[in-house]
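Data availability excerpt. The first of two example chains:
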Amino acid sequence: MHIDPAVYVRSAIRSVPDWPKPGITFRDITPVLQDPRSFRVLIDLFVYRYMRQRLDLVAGIDARGFILGSVLAYELNLGFVPVRKKGKLPFQTVAEEYSLEYGNATVEMHTDSVRPGQRVLLIDDLIATGGTMVAASKLLQRLGANVIEAAAIIDLPYLGGSQALKDTGLPIYTVCSFDEGAA
């Protein structure tokens, strides 16, 4: 019996109701990472998608994007650059502020993270409202990078993030999606 790899990965994602607050269902990728088979299937999905594309770097968003991005960069024989939360990088940085549900946040990168014209894959674990990923993409573009695609394990389309990314002209790829309240 053949199981679709994306369905296999989705089945390993844990749904935690009412966390971090009532009415929110948190999509926890920890079980995917803990299980060697599901982690390998996940990484292989990304590797197969990007192995024949001309890329220079993988940029991972703080913090779960670091896990996926660094492993993917290694598998594709590419460099990895972190997109960090404000105040975490020791060298000269460039910053991009974005809106959250209750206020603003900022992501930063070192000014020498990318060179103009480099082709970059941007990766994180989840697309919710899209704010962090849009800000990270803008940051990479300000440094001269060509962001080829934004990738994530999970899309929560009812929160509008994937549409917000598409509206900027950035192609996206996600392994699976969850509708509001879906198990």
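And the second chain:
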Amino acid sequence: MLGAFFRRNGDRRRVIEALHLRLSEASRQPGLYTALGVPDTVEGRFESLTLHAILLLRRLNTLPSPGPDIAQDLVNSVFLQFDASLRELGVGDVGVPKRMKKLGAAFYGRASGYQGAIEAGDTPALALALARNVLGREEDGAEALAAYVLAAAAGLARIDLDGILGGAALFPDPAQYGRPA
């Protein structure tokens, strides 16, 4: 049934837009910034969106077809948003491709860096990577954020494609994993 559904471009586009919206909303949860220390800056919002996208894409790619196709459409949608955001920030047509290349390298580098720690359930390694990438510091201090990420990955692992597309909660409440700053 999903196969036929995704053959119609309009339906497919609406599903991806809705999923992208849910991803964006999850990355803007106030608890990420108040309880887990994600900086409320352009860079912090990029890191939050990237982190949530990585988690969701990771799950979609483990699901049977059309999960990987949905993942590819979603990543395309996320990168189109990055492009539009750069243009809104005043980056000119000449500078956008260079910045997009850097954003792509950052996105996929983070995905690769987080994957091993998530798979191993290695909280200290994940906390160190999150401290460096998301919180912008070299020392520890991202244990609560790492706990949130591991809980999110575990929660996503329990949701099938119908649940993901049907509106199931994709991410836990970040405020449960930290204390207000």
